[in-house]
Amino acid sequence: MAIRAVVWDVDDTLFDYTSADREGMRAHLLAGELLAGYASVEEALLRWREVTDLQWARFAAGEADFETQRRDRIRVFLEHELTDDEADDWFRRYLVHYESAWSLFPDVLPVLDALAASHRHAVLSNSSLHVQDPKLRALGVHDRFEAVLCAAELGVSKPEAGAFLAACEALALPPDQVAYVGDHPEIDGRGAAEAGLLSVWIDRGGAYATAEPPVGLCRIVSLGELPALLRADTRFGAPTGIG
After folding, report:
1. I need a labelling partner for 224 at 20 to 30 A (CA). Which of 87, 118, 173, 183 fits?
2. Cβ within 8 Å of residue 153, ≥6 positions away
3. Over the stretch 11-23, which tens digit does the pLDDT of each residue have?
């Protein structure tokens, strides 16, 4: 079957979340939020990323809802008990700096333009609509997508097959006519492949660059490689190194 639609992850796939989070948190800490318990801003940034990854894993596993994982992220990072209102206030101050650093990866608009006439597009994120909908609007790409689906509202998160199948259902297409593009080789890559989609891992050389690619996905290092991959539709027996 030909691939008729592409479903996209957002953070670190379309949107440079890692850079925005790092630069936003750096500015937040330098504005007076750095605790005495950290020897430097760099040490605090490393700890923030560790805590973020751990709390997102809890959310993905269904152990905490979206708001709880965000508040617990702050409590663990600060090593201090906070009320919900106090945690939310701290996060709002961080968001001012984080949002000022938002940007798309440079290969995003060219590939969306290249595929605009040939493929339909949707978003599936392990975040919430409250977060991703305004972000996509601010980045100027919201109207590129027929549907924006998020785990917080779906009640199921990647890598569960139900999340990917919900995206296919929103497009009224079977999984074998849909490609999924994401940056995480397990949560995005393995999950999409096991749900029956053409799974494409965009390896931007970040935290997962040394990971062993799961069986059943295609690996690209630039979204510029995607149009040729979709035309070829090499899901069966595809190499994990494209380009």
Report:
1. 173
2. 128, 129
3. 999 999 999 999 9
